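Open question from group meeting: does this chain pack into something compact, or does most of it stay loose? Before anyone orders reagents, we agreed to write out a predicted structure and look at it together. Recording both the input and the output here so the notebook holds the full record.
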Amino acid sequence: MKNKIIRTAATLGLIGGITLSMWSSLAGAGLALPMDKILKTLQPVPVFTLVDDQGVPLIAIDQKNKDKKITGIFISESDANKFFEQLQKQNPDIAKKVNVRLVSLGDIYKVAQEYENKPDGLTFSYVPNIKEVDQAKKIITANGQQYSGGVPLFVARGGKDQGYLTIQENNQVAIPFFFDYSELQNMLERFKKEKPDLAGSVKVEVVLLETIMQTMKQSNDDNLSKIILVPSRESIKAVQTSQGKTTSPANTKSPANNLK
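Structure tokens returned:
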């Protein structure tokens, strides 16, 4: 996973050519994409959660539904660390049993599918970076809509048909969706210099990570497999500085063993 994330970041930093894709919609219905294609998109994305030494997650009980168990999945490592610091102050006995771990979004997705529709299952709550949420709200509000929660991703459209801007990765067309708005802006600056005639047509759109994952489950449009989820620089740095130990949440198969 580490090498794939770093390679993707390098590709976007050197962008050999940005083009416009004719694919213009995430809508669609039918059979889900095959699991291997979904995981190919999600596996390179680092996320952060709190687990004990055995990989068992820290969970909370839904006050309205006592059978519902929730564990937080943080998009930002710094947000996960802040939550951990609060836990140390508010409940030190629990805090000393857990730590912040880097995990793959693909692994989280696999476990989420195992628990889907099970009354005693585990629910993953994705915690977005507040800075990116603030930026997303501005874009969504400008488009006459309202932000109602979720992890924002930023993607650009342009041209007469408002197709998605694409890049070349491994000689294949890819559609980058950014967790970090500033990284998309860097790409757009390059695009506008290379193709000034199209600069005025470029628009930024916000799509929720949760929407992407749900759409992949409901549509077999192969264009969905062209999506690349581009982690923030902070997340890429976390991968680079880690000791190469990522934790698969396999032990979440036993939520009854949660920390108390």
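Observations to bring back to the group:
The longest helix spans residues 77-90.
Residues 128 and 151 are 5 Å apart (CA to CA).
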